[in-house]
Amino acid sequence: MDHYAVIGHPVEHSQSPLIHQAFAKQTGQALEYSRVLAPLDGFAATVAQLRAQGYQGANVTVPFKFEAYALADRLSARALNAGAVNTLSFLPDGVVGDNTDGIGLVQDILHNLQFVLPGKRVLLLGAGGAAEGVLYPLLEQGPAVLCIANRTHDKAIAMATRAQKQHGELRIEARSFAELAGQTFDLVINATSSGLSNEKMTLPAGLFAESALAYDMMYGRETPFMAYARQDKVANIADGLGMLVEQAAEAFYSWRKVRPLTLPVIKQLRT
Ligand code: ATR
After folding, report:
1. How many domains is the chain partitioned into structurally?
2. Which of 25, 65, 165, 257 does the annotation list as catalytic?
């Protein structure tokens, strides 16, 4: 039996064991997947312990994604782009760090929500770790424009400037929330942590183009961003549950080389 875990602090809320056990059952893989609470100053020691116990890999959640990046002996291209790691593979010759958050978001948007990304006007709200994690996979889809807006404008500018260097062919903009007034977008993604604290964002009204998709990367309850979209009469509003399952599927694939079906698991979690 192979062993995997999700490492976090806190971690008891994590749905990852449910998701990976559902994938394992569906694909006939024999594995165990558990939650591991690491002390805030004990991430590296926890990883060392799991490796010593023969674990094959782990997912990494808040607040250890940057530490996981620093700890990995080798990094995938998408981990390098994100500057953070959510998936570790424990190999005989070292620890490989990967990041499946961004591809998880893109898969959910493209396949589950059937939203075509290329050529669209995309607004990414936030310039923290969560936004960084999804920026490059979004850019790889070739949006007509990708606008990064953040409460602290300077952070949006820094992020857009860095991304523009790598994607000179694309239009990447940085805005303060106030500067969004009068603009419309086909897809608005909330990658801020405002939903966690249930805080409102001071966004101007009328940001959504016709048939726009409003996507909150949080899941579990209606966030102020989702309520804001509802108020603006947006018909397509999604939470981050699909992204959660898709990022897990990508991690499962990289560990087991088998791709699980995600829709049944998303449905199972929703009920
Ligand atoms: P995470 O890893 O979740 O991205 P983070 O790196 O601390 O966490 O980033 C939090 C993001 O949410 C930032 O973009 C933050 O904006 P600031 O850079 O201005 O702090 C954003 N954020 C948090 N609460 C917010 C709120 N109430 N309104 C708008 N933005 C908010």
Report:
1. 2
2. 65
**63 ligand 1 Cβ < 6 A:** no
List, in sequence order, the alpha helices (H) in 77-234: 77-82, 101-107, 129-139, 153-166, 194-197, 224-231
Whether residues 129 and 77 share a domain: the answer is no
Nearest CA to ligand 1 atom 25: 194
Asked whether residue 147 falls in the same domain as residue 233, the answer is yes
- Whether residue 157 sits in one domain with residue 76: no
One domain, residues 81 and 185? no
**84 and 17 in one domain?**
yes
> 223 C-alpha to center of ligand 1: Å?
14
Output the tens digit of pLDDT for each of the chain's 271 residues: 999 999 999 999 999 999 999 999 999 999 999 999 999 999 999 999 999 999 999 999 999 999 999 999 999 999 999 999 999 999 999 999 999 999 999 999 999 999 999 999 999 999 999 999 999 999 999 999 999 999 999 999 999 999 999 999 999 999 999 999 999 999 999 999 998 898 899 999 999 999 999 999 999 999 999 999 999 999 999 999 999 999 999 999 999 999 999 999 999 999 9
Known catalytic residue: 233?
no
CA neighbor of 23 nearest in space, from 251, 175, 234: 251
Cα 110 to averaged position of ligand 1 atoms, centre (Å) = 25
Structural domain of residue 61, as residue ranges?
2-99+243-270
Task: Look up the CATH number of the domain holding residue 198.
Answer: 3.40.50.720
